[in-house]
Amino acid sequence: EYRGYDSAGVTLADDQGLRTFKAKGRLSELRNIVENRELHQHTGIGHTRWATHGVPNNLNAHPHTNSANTISLVHNGIIENYVSLKQMLENNGYVFQSETDSEAVVHLIDYYYRRFQDMETAFKRAVRDLEGSYGLCVISTYAPDTVFVARKESPMILGISDEGTYCASDAPALLEYTRKLMTLNDGDIAVLKPEHIALFDAKGNEKKEEWMEFPYDLQSAQKGGYDTFMEKEIHEQPQTIRETMRGRIEGKSIVLPELDPILGRILRADHVLWIACGTAYHACVYGQMVLNRLVPINSTAIPASEFRYGNYYVDKNTLCIFVSQSGETADTLAAIKRAKSSGAATIAVANVLGSSLTRIADATVYTCAGLEIAVASTKAYTAQLTLIYLLAQKLAEIMGYSTREHDEIITYLNELDRLTQETISIAKPVIREYASMLKNEHDVYFIGRQLDYVSAMEGALKLKEISYIHADAYYAGELKHGPIALIQDQTVVIAFATQPEVASKTISNIKETVARGAKIILITDQNTPAEGFTYVIRIPEIRPDLACIISAVIFQFLAYYAASERGCDIDKPRNLAKSVTVE
Question: What radius of gyration, in Å, describes the C-alpha atoms of the chain?
């Protein structure tokens, strides 16, 4: 449920056949339909859906069934050739009830069942005809006590326990039942029986199961006394930063043995690309800026959705770093495949063990953010920033570039968790008051220079995601080149000025907006003069290149309280999914 959705449904199988229930809106609507019915199910599938093909309603909600109500299917992804499949099926007498691409798949399975009279054969044959991305679960009266599962570019996790077998698109959904999990590879097909699972590769060869013990338990997926998961996860950041650095600083050294297999390729690199989507892309911009300060090698951040289709030069001397909390982001997976096909060395920065991105990359460094349930990322973001900072420092060392500030860097890294906690203590009491001024705003502008622009981008995204207030981020120095035309009396501008070498310039830009009537919330360091500004938050003393890590908790709380004031669904904002597994 935590991923977000606009409709939901289940199909339950018992001795009487398949019974399907659907509802638009929250799971409580579906629960009201299902509860108090006399059900004796022993097999079932369910789905929560964000609309990609067809509007959110009961017809378009999953599961989809064939006309005889003998086959039921749920599907994540997008079937790119569904128009041609639908035309073929309609030519063979099939009638469609919904507007979705997924319904074509259930009819296609029915088509092949009529031909082969065997459900497993029909499922495998239908999957061969599909183009696009899919995570499929299918049950049928033709194969009682069986769930058929297939995966291509859309995550599928299997689980097993003494009580049964399970599948889901994300591990937390299974933690109530088991921690013994396995991730399907692209092209894999699984046949689940109550006591065992048969696994096949894309060529139909049976595979050995590779189970792992998931490192988190159900307690990790609870709110722990907080009103929302997002609030809990903001408060967990000192701990997750500490866990992400654990074992990676020994004395005065940064230790990343995960890079050892590709040391030669790192040494050969003549340019570095940082590639990701959304919040992880903002972390990549941070990585680009930090690395550019350390080495005279071009370092560039590119959105994965642009990289996979753009004309970016990549060869054997390119080092590509891919960042994804889930490790299942569709555009990022497509991007890493393109980079590898061009000969680039690839590093994954991910949070989920064994995820698709980590299995493709040449080397993986893991953040240790734990389960992040809220759709809007908080602790995963600061864990990414922390690990990317360590990674940039280590890459510079491997490439032969040292810094005279090394001892100071280690000192502040060792203090980073404490300074993050101190920032929470400083900011939380005043942020609720500051956030109240945003309740009725339609537009808010975030500005900053250099590394502060990373905070501006992520701060604007957080506010948009959970409060639905339009927010834009700009380099402070670019205001006069157009955006200042938007500033009028009482416009809210949230400014970051934590970089001493440009702080005075940023303050000058802020004053230009004040002259036009803007209300300012200023996040700055301990030394930048801030006379004349009413709303000021000063972060603890820290190295400027680490400032945006501890600044993050400020704009996260700002977005959180603004959304709370507006009555928004903070953990499940509209139209958003936790893991974006389609283009």
Answer: 25
What is d(CA 127, CA 152) in angstroms, rounded to the nearest whole number? Answer: 10
Domain ranges of the chain: 7-219, 226-403, 421-570
CATH number, domain 421-570, options 3.40.30.10, 3.30.310.250, 3.40.50.10490, 3.40.50.300: 3.40.50.10490
Question: Measuring CA to CA, which residue among 500, 505, 455 is closest to residue 477?
Answer: 505
Where is 49: in which H helix or E strand? strand 43-49
Tell me, what amino acid is at 506?
T
Q: Which DSSP string corresponds to 376-439?
A: S-SHHHHHHHHHHHHHHHHHHHHTT---TTHHHHHHHHHHHHHHHHHHHHHHHHHHHHHHHTTT
Integer Cα distance of 248 and 275 in angstroms: 23
Question: What's phi and psi for 183, nearest 5 deg?
Answer: -95, 130
Q: What are the tokens at 314?
A: 């990549």
Q: pLDDT tens across 289-344, in order?
A: 999 999 999 999 999 999 988 889 999 999 999 999 999 999 999 999 999 999 99
- The pair of structure tokens assigned to 428 is 């939380």
**pTM to 2 decimal places:** 0.84
- How many helices (H) and strands (E) the chain has is answered by 16, 26
pLDDT tens digits for 387-417? 999 999 999 999 999 888 999 999 999 999 9
**Residue entry with tokens 């930090």:** 290
The Cα 94–Cα 205 span in angstroms is 32
What is the rounded distance in angstroms from the CA atom of residue 550 to the CA atom of residue 538? 11
Check residue 7 and give its pLDDT.
77
Residue 302 host element (H or E):
strand 298-303
φ, ψ of residue 218 to 5 degrees: the values are -60, -30
Burial 241-264 (b: 16+ CB within 10 A, else e): bbbbbeebeeeeebebebbeebee
φ, ψ (nearest 5 deg) of residue 116? -105, -15
Nearest to 154, CA basis, from 182, 187, 121 = 187
Q: Do domains 7-219 and 226-403 have the same CATH topology?
A: no
The topology (CATH level 3) of 7-219 is Glutamine Phosphoribosylpyrophosphate, subunit 1, domain 1 (3.60.20)
CA dihedral 478, 484, 485, 488 (to 10 degrees): 170
Domain 226-403 CATH (choose: 3.40.50.300, 3.40.50.880, 3.10.250.10, 3.40.50.10490): 3.40.50.10490
Q: Cis (ω within 30 of 0) for the bond into 63? A: yes
pLDDT tens-digit readout, 191-236:
999 999 999 998 889 999 889 888 776 666 788 889 999 999 999 9
d(CA 199, CA 205): 8
Spatial separation of the C-alpha atoms in residues 296 and 294, rounded to whole Å: 7
pLDDT (0 to 100) of residue 158: 96
Pairing of β 147-152 and β 189-192: antiparallel
User: By three-state DSSP, how is residue 116 classified?
Assistant: helix
